[in-house]
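Sequence design from tokenized structure. All designs in this work follow the same two-part layout: the structure record, then the generated sequence. An example of the structure record is given first.
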């Protein structure tokens, strides 16, 4: 965490949020947050970096499937920022990690994607437990190379349903840069979906690099901010970032 703060400060970032994973599925290994250790590390970083706003947080994996564990964590955590996310979907009666498909041998990426949208809609049933809907379109990170490319337009009806429900829940939509992975695959969601979010009544977005390691902090945030600007969000509607100074064309997506 200290190295992450050093990196953030060197980049001129004003805010860093440690939204550690809280996953309870067997495939995720049951990552239960060590709250005592987390708080101690957070306090040390806040003392060492007084000019950096350091937010506490958690990323809840499938909280709709683990309401008891989620409630217990939130009752103890007192977090500044809580994300809700889908990492796993039910395939053939069992939970599978999205990183194992849709690019897995013999898997149907289109079917995986449709299952993901259904699971995300169920996630929104637990929207009271989190503020930010994290890395929408997550499975496209693992979309197979070659063959039919991933296109958000192929799932517009499902995406629209998800976005409208998220807007009704007054959530913030995260634009996740996947630590600088190429934007077509890594920006979750992509610019087109961010624009649909605004049209659906979404009032705010957040940006995050999803770094997982200090050296990746901040990677791809320029792309996330470009997507936000192209969709029509102003700096006051962006959590954790400011708009790039250069003007952006509204004739088409930024890449």
């Amino acid at each position: 965490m200290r190295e992450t703060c050093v990196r953030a400060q060197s980049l001129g970032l004003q805010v860093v949020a440690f939204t550690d994973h809280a996953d309870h599925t067997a495939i995720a290994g049951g990552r239960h947050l060590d709250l005592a250790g987390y708080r101690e590390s957070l306090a040390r970083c806040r003392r060492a970096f007084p000019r950096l706003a350091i937010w506490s947080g958690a990323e809840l994996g499938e909280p709709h499937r683990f309401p008891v564990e989620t409630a217990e964590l939130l009752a103890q955590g007192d977090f500044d920022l809580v994300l809700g996310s889908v990492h796993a979907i039910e395939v053939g009666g069992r939970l599978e990690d999205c990183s194992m498909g849709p690019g897995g041998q013999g898997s149907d990426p289109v079917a995986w994607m449709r299952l993901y949208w259904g699971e995300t809609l169920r996630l929104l049933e637990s929207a009271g437990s989190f503020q930010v809907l994290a890395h929408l379109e997550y499975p496209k990170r693992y979309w197979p190379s070659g063959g039919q490319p991933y296109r958000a337009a192929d799932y517009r009806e499902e995406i629209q349903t998800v976005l409208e429900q998220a807007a009704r829940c007054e959530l913030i939509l995260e634009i996740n840069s996947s630590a600088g992975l190429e934007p077509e695959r890594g920006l979750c969601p992509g610019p087109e979906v961010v624009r649909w979010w605004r049209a659906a009544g979404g009032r705010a977005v957040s940006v995050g690099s999803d770094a997982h390691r200090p050296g990746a902090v901040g990677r791809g945030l320029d792309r996330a901010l470009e997507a936000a600007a192209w969709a029509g969000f102003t700096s006051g509607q962006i959590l954790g970032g400011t708009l790039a100074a250069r003007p952006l064309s509204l004739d088409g997506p930024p890449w």
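The chain is about 35% helix and 15% strand. We note this feature because it recurs in several other targets discussed in the main text.
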